[in-house]
Design brief:
The protein is mostly helical and 121 residues long. Helix content is 67%, strand content 0%. The protein has seven helices and no strands. The radius of gyration is 15 Å and the shape is globular.
Length: 121
């Protein structure tokens, strides 16, 4: 099972340009994951498929066997934030595991947005 420290070490090794941002908040996994999501989104927006493949490869490696804290960070601060509307081809570069997670989190968010409130004024 992979955890926070494993992820941050691999993230900085693979993407040294994130070192300062990631190590500036050493205990804030969701902030660190947000930096990774922002890098991934920039790759999507720019159709930078080599960079995007590297991002998805790292994400898939850690999404395969995360501890509960890391899994939550991937769902809430990575997959939930990815927007493929400007580059539908980018979505096809995700592994089936990441794609399934992305679909599930988006379906959950859709349910939250369309659910009728269970309270009355």
């Amino acid at each position: 099972m992979l955890g926070h420290k494993d992820f941050v070490a691999a993230l900085v090794e693979e993407f040294p340009e994130l070192k300062e941002a990631v190590e500036g908040d050493p205990e804030l996994l969701h902030v660190q994951m947000g930096e990774f999501a922002a890098l991934t989104q920039r790759a999507i927006n720019a159709n930078d498929f080599p960079l995007l493949r590297r991002c998805f490869a790292l994400a898939d490696r850690f999404y395969a066997d995360p501890d509960p804290q890391l899994e939550n960070a991937f769902n809430v601060s990575f997959l939930e934030d990815l927007d493929f509307r400007g580059s539908p081809k980018a979505n096809k570069l995700m592994s089936s595991r990441l794609h399934r997670g992305w679909v599930e989190i988006n379906e959950y968010l859709d349910q939250l947005l369309t659910r009728k409130p269970n309270w009355r004024p």
